Amino acid sequence: MRSLFRRTWRRAAQAYHLACARDDAAKRKIIIPSGVWVCDHCEQAVLELAALREHIRTQHAYI
Fold it and tell me: Where does the C2H2-type domain lie (predicted)?
């Protein structure tokens, strides 16, 4: 039962992250593949939210 819940939660989270990436791209009026995140500070594109968080933490820690 727990694995079913975890799998469902993981799929919901992934769908949410993909929707956020699409909204981010639409806000910038650019067309990019689904699941690509763009840094607000330097416009670097990354493929995973965790990678974006790590990029912001290491490159833009002063912000």
Answer: 39-60
